[in-house]
Each structure stands twice: as C-alpha cells, then as structure tokens.
Amino acid sequence: MAEEENSLPILKVNNLTKTFGGLVAVDELSFSVPQGIIYGLIGPNGAGKTTVFNMITRFYKPDSGKVLFQSDQGEVDLLDYRVHEIIDLGVARTFQNIELFNNMTVIENLMAGGHSQLKTNFFQEIFRLPGFKAKEKETRQQALEILDFLGLAGKENQPASSQPYGVQKLLELGRILMAEPEIILLDEPAAGMNDSETNRLAKLLQLIKDEFDITIFLVEHDMSLVMDICQQITAINFGKKICQGSPAEIQASEAVQEAYLGRKEN
Fold this sequence. Notes:
By secondary structure, the chain is α/β, with parallel strands linked by helices. The chain has helices at residues 2-5, 49-56, 83-89, 106-113, 122-126, 130-149, 165-178, 195-211, 223-229, 247-252, 254-261, and strands spanning 9-20, 23-34, 38-42, 64-71, 74-77, 91-93, 183-187, 215-219, 232-237, 240-245.
C-alpha cells in the first residue's frame, strides 16, 4: 500500500463544482488518482458519480474547478480540451449503457476503437493506398490479440449484436484498449453481470492494469467488487467527498455507513 500511496497522480480533480438549475450535483470536489492502480469512486444513487465522470471527459462543463491529467505533453487541464480530443491525450471511458456498433462484427467494433491511432491522411484512406492498408492490417492484428486476451478468440466475425450481455461489456472494454489509453474510466462496469461474470471481470481488470500498464478509475455499485480490486477509494454523497482511503478505511468510516444506510452503525 505504501508504494501505491507514493505514486505520482495521473489525474487530479481540484474543487470541481457543477449545478443543474440551482441544484448542486458536485460540490467543490477534490481528489487524486495515483498512477498504476485501480481507483474507485463510490456513493449512493444520486451522489454525483457519473456527473464527475462526465465533467472529466468533457461531456459536461463544470461551473468551476480543474481536472489535471499527466499526459505525454506534461500536466494539462482536461477542461481546456474538447470531447474528441480527450482520447488523444490518453483518457478513455465506458458508459453505463453499452455503446457498441450493433451493425458491425465483433472485430469491426474493436477496430473502430483503434481509429484514433490510425495515422493516415485523407487520400490514403479514400484511395486505400499502401500506407493505409498496412496500418489497417496492423490494427486488425492488434484487435485479434485483444480478443484473445479477453477470451473471445473465434468470435471476431460474429455480429456484435448477437453476443450475450456479458460479452458485449467485454467488447466495449476491448474497444477502449484499442485506443491505447493511459487511464480508463469505467462507469458501472459490472452492471447487469451475474456473479460469475463479475468475478471474471475482477480478474480481467487486474490483468489489464498489470499487463497494459493502465490506470483504472471506476464508478461501481457492487461493493464486493470495489473492495476486492481497488487500492484506493473516494466516497461521495450529495456531490461532496465524505471519505477517502483504503478499502478498510472506507468500510470503517461512519460517514460512509451513514450515507449508505441512512444512519450510523451502533
């Protein structure tokens, strides 16, 4: 734990605030996500967790605050960038609802995730010149390797829409890996999964962190999953931070118990 606590932060949220029609959804929220760990953001329904993700990835504009990210260009404020520019910096995310291209095959969905890595120009793409073909072949091979890593080898030419729910969740995760991000934000990754699928997801996220050297930042309601895989956690309620620390510290927090149960434990 000491090594993780001393890790440099890859993401710093400073005094982030967002209101909707006078209702404060996120209230001067600050926390840091160390590089190279699995970090959790938890809280009761309506606590503001997804709103935080939406501000970090620029789907919402905060009223105030900063979101500092340690990119290849040095520390940048993500609020200075547009939505489509965020992934180029190394930040990728999933959503609560699965966002696959259902009219495409499994491998086509993954290759779409690698589009931002295709360093080709307009004419190469239009006329399918050798440079584009070579890069497309490389992207396809990368997609096949990720499918194998996810345990989905052999499904590459099947329609994405025909896959079971758990497989579709894995495909969404695979598409993110194609973008080669530095950090991935997972919004309810275990939602709708059964116990077996959730256990498999827990092991997979650990492997992704270790083998791809990616920091994982997740919002999740499944507390057993969060406590099992997260090294550090921030708990919020009504948009304010109420506790931050290790899983053991979060579990022992009276503020967290009160937020979830509506009362303090005796």
